[in-house]
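Entry 14. Ran structure prediction on the chain below.
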Amino acid sequence: MSGRDRQPTHDVDEEWTQDPTPPVILSFTGMPGLNVPTPTTLLGFLQLFITRELLAYLAAETNAYAHYMRKEMCRGDKGAWVPVTVQEMAMFLGLIIIMGIFPAPERRMYWQTGKIFSMPGFARIMSRNRFDAINRYFHTANRKAIPRDNNDRLFLVKPVINYLKARFRATYTPERNVSLDEGLMPYKGRLSIKTYNPQKPSKYGIKLYMLCEAKSGYVVDFLTYGGSTSTLKDIVFTLMGPLLDKGYHVFMDNYYNSIELAEELYSHGVLCSGTLRLVRKGAPNFLKSLTRQWVPRNSMHFHRRGNVFVICWQDIRLVTMITTACNAETEEFVHRRRVRRATGTSLETVTMNRPLIIGTYCQYMGGVDLFDQLMKYYSMARKGMKWTRKFTFYLLQMAILNAYAMFAKYHPQSKKIKLLDFMYECAEALINFNAEDWPLSDISFAHLPDLPVADRLDVLPVPVPAAAASAGEDSEPDDPHSMDSAVDIPEAAVESLVPPPSPLPSPLPSPPLPRTSSVPPSLADVGPSDSGPSTAGPSTAGPSAAGPLCCWSLCCWY
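Output, structure tokens:
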């Protein structure tokens, strides 16, 4: 094809104009406010999100997990386990709140006596051993309900997540201006869904995409990152789902914003404003060229396509904004900056004309930042190896902060109570739990039923040698640990993990093979025998499908 026959390439700037006409503003049809009767007491605001059904569910799952670990997995303390009651679970959570108000380097220090920092109130409420036992077995989901083909990394915390998301949306409808940003629960342990964000004070942790009311920081909805491959567009539309076609105005930063997203949100009845990366697809080429040349300070350039405005304003750096809510109008802005002179550094006041959308963005973008700020004051999340427990405490504190936002907005005496006093009153209400003050509601928590043993993730198949699987054949297995066939652990074997007591001391079992080995040990390698510890090496017999199962098979190979 010759050069004459080539078609001219499509220039992106042909779609953009410099028309300063304001865009068509969508009318707001939402009905912000509480969707339930307004409580009259502080406890009533707390019970909007933390209900008696939630406490009962946490107590039931904790008891189920304690029985699972002690009876079936043979992993637990030697003392007797007393089931947790709803009152004890409320007291336990109340003490967790107090620990966030008065942080100590080690948990045992709260129960020490005879010290300057002694806190005798903890021992009067609950003994240290009882608190440690509840903390050890604290759980939020049924381990026996995890299927072997499970791909949901948040399975163990999903019931609490779904409950709180439903409560947040059903209780309150936000005002028009909302902000969308990511939050982070600090966590440095080994976890597959842990992320790194250098722009956060805590750089490692579990990431959440959060939609908050811009003014109060109320969490309207959130999504927890679980290693999914969802696009940014899917995340934004999932969070904004119930608010579409109502004229809401969402503020986002340049991580989310794009020309395509702004146009699609506008078509679904949502205004959009925020910063923009000019490298995103569809941005005007003329504005892209501003990043590669000198631009006078306090100068502004804009382009428009339909109702989408892209505005560039030169301050110390080039600031790029995208909006569907206003045009490129400017406002006077008084700026104080440091000026270096021969006599020293001084402050001077400078009056500048900046785009109106920049001031609006600075005013309404801080909803998620306000939530993060309040979360760090009296954090309930304690360091620990179990990430599910720490994340559950993070979610419960999120519910408490939402209750505080509603209390500050609708209670007449809210100006006299700070966040510290509110959290202390919540802790006192939980510690002094009274069933009469916590009425039952229509909320139901469904305990996930146990799956069959053959379908459960926590039970691995027992390897059977090839000789046992092919009974009646003349061939002998080359490998005593052959994995040609396997059977699942029977229910009777799981129930009989603990050996019967013996009047004579039994010899210690041989140590199991390391976890990195690809071949599990047989019963003869790890279990005690009648004639003492085995010294003849691995057995070639192997376990039968219905024989007793040693606890090493579950504890070391899960």
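The first strand starts at residue 33 and ends at 34. Will compare against last week's run tomorrow.
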